[in-house]
Amino acid sequence: MSSTTIITICIIAYLGISLYAYIMKTQLDFWILSIAVGMFQGPIQDLSRSYFGKIIPAEKSGEYFGLYDIFGKGASILGTIIVSLVSQLTGNLNLRVSALSILFLIGLFLFRKSVRLNQKNSECGQTTNV
Length: 130
Prior knowledge:
Helices cover 84% and strands 0% of the residues. The protein is built from 5 helices and no strands. Helix 1 (3-23) runs antiparallel to helix 5.
């Protein structure tokens, strides 16, 4: 399986995990959710960094990985804001985590689009700079 396929599977799994959080009611549900997060967190972090390293220009890797890090921090801030706002506006504790599913859908769409663009550029013989 290619790294892009596994990353896609992990994003879809996280989408499912965030939706599962909405129906979570028991301690067993919490453990199931925790195990699922543990199964997909490592692979998605490792493979996304590796994939990113493949598609950026080697001579500018420091700049690109700096940008990667900034976007990672921005995503953690955005996620916290979404969870907080949903929690405050609805009072539903389960809905707050499920609201993150919107980010996973957007991320899945953008990732698949970038993969298609990268493959198209490779077929045309162009560089794979994204």
